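User: Can you write out an input/output pair for a complex, sequences first and structure second?

Assistant: Here is one pair. Inputs:
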Amino acid sequence: MSDLALSVGNLSKSFNIDHQWNGLGNYRTLHDDLVNLPRRLLARFSQSHRPTSETFWALRNVSFDVRQGEVVGIIGANGAGKSTLLKILNRITEPTSGGADIYGRVGALLEVGTGFHPELTGRENVFLNGAILGMTRVEIKKKFDEIVAFAEIEKFLDTPVKRYSSGMYVRLAFAVAAHLEPEILLIDEVLAVGDARFQKKSLQKMEEVAANDGRTVIFVSHSMPTVARLCPRTIWLRGGEIAADGPSDEVIQKYSNVTFVDQDRVSWRDGFSNAGVHELKFKSVGLLDKKGRPTTHFDYSEPLNFELSYTVHESLYFCRIGFLVHALDGTPVFEVYDVDEDVKGGRREPGSYMIRCEVPGDMLKPGRYSLSLNAGMPGIKNLVRLDGVLQFSVDDPGLPGAAMNLPRVGVVRPKTKWFRKTL
Amino acid sequence: MLSQSSTAIADIDPRPITATPMPTLRIRPTKGWAALNLRELWQYRDLLWILVERNVKVIYKQTALGMAWVALQPLIAAAILAIIAGRVAKLPSDGTPHLLFVFCGLTIWNYFSQTAQRSSTSLINNSQLVSKVYFPRMLIPLSHTFSTLVDFAVTLIMLFVFMVIYHVPPTLRLLAIPGFLFLTAITATGVALWFSALSVKYRDTNYALPLFLQIWMWASAIIYPTSMIDSARWQTIFALNPVVGFVEGFRWCVLGKSALNPTMFWITVAISFVTLLSGAFFFRRTERKFADII
């Protein structure tokens, strides 16, 4: 196989979750380490496993090969190891065992806008960001006009990016990254940015990159329609292991069938990478029926309850926390926040809290949905966004008229009132 | 299948030999001390330059006085210290006017302490980059070694102005300034690499370093001459603090009077290189965990 682009073999990555961490974040103080030193030395001497830490395997024995020019999608639930895999391939973090051989120059697009400096102008940031992503100054100069035209920010080139709207910011960031010319491109869910029109444009750009240039692309996404459209082959990661690897339609089919796990609650432990930022951490999220019992199946006419508990570590202002619901094919259904009714609730003091959102029944079309969490300070910064943490189904209770219930278009099926008279 | 070994990057491909070309990149777990990989640093020199540019542009942005701060800071500090040294403490100054004497010491000290201070917090300030993009992490602290040179240049010009004011004739010794600056830069970089690597794991360094630098300054013959110490043996021991060597060397270049002797000089050179190398190796050793714990 001389056309190999990437060969991953027995790749594993573990993290130690230290139960003694203070819960304030992923870092310790020197004091903590000095206090624990005698115990750690003792543990080392007695060869016993340290009782204060637990090993969490983000990836376990993952092996696959990618040929040159192949476009491969990586799907899986949160915490399945998708991002960790990309981080290892991009050398941001090291594997614990196993490894990967890469044949060609790697470029990665793990988060749009990393390395942008708010005080610098758009022009300066194009160079900064390009260099960070691995382009040389000459390459950037050559592509500069193309990048600016793609981002549609010609007029604001010499404005500091902190004055940009979030849309402009994201467009510029995507434009820089999309004009990278590595032989192997790693992409992590960057298409969910910008307005609908720009999303479409960036998607087209990605297709162009993948199809015309014969480049190898590894594409991580939660959006099944996008994966199906961009990638002929898909790898599904589950719990750090490969659950399926093959033609996209087959793998996505399997994923959609099997991943509907009857899980009504997800909890995060301290130190787990996805649970939040240092100001705010999510503790757990659950689905409850109208009587407060955990469930994943709701009747069409019944209200749905989403319950989220979280801890605030630092005072926050103008902060909204809420839920997003998507149909399983990725279509957004709605987005709600706990400050929708009361803006004053945006101020949050340190402490632990629980919020519950009741969504009226008689609204969602029977089918499967996924629940995402979002917390942020609109226009200031995003705090936490966790996609597809839980899934639930709205069941068809056999409504009157169910006999005529052929599959319907749309994502909602509101309970409608009808008036009829004979003319 | 690839080897499971957890030793350093294997040079031997464990797979059977086929027509497969050599991979351009091998990703394997590493352990222990890592090579400095200077070649890669060189490949990324464009990024280093752009980071330096960014540091310079950003540092005094949105301040009313802008770059004037670069000049004001050492000027005011030198004035205060000169009054303390000359009028209050009545310290000797090798016969040089106190303001010039102190300013001379501060010129080199400020470069040292600013480099150390700015770069030691640089990894934390750029945690977004460290956890999202790959490039040699050393570039981040290193960029401050270069960008602080701008501040140094401004201070140096002011020092020349002071020389004119105080009628200190320039000599050929001024040509040795780059040499002492180079020693200062590598030591500051070494200190910065130690502290920036430590700061990823222990945020304590953010609080400890300013304090540490303050004590260091008072221990470094900035406002008093090394000649105050009358025993040669004690002067040698004093020179174990490399900053003493830089300051005295710099004074030798500018003022022509200094307690610097060959023993002191070589001690300073040795300690400078030890600081840089130990910092660089320590940085490389801890670097691999940065993205996981930052």
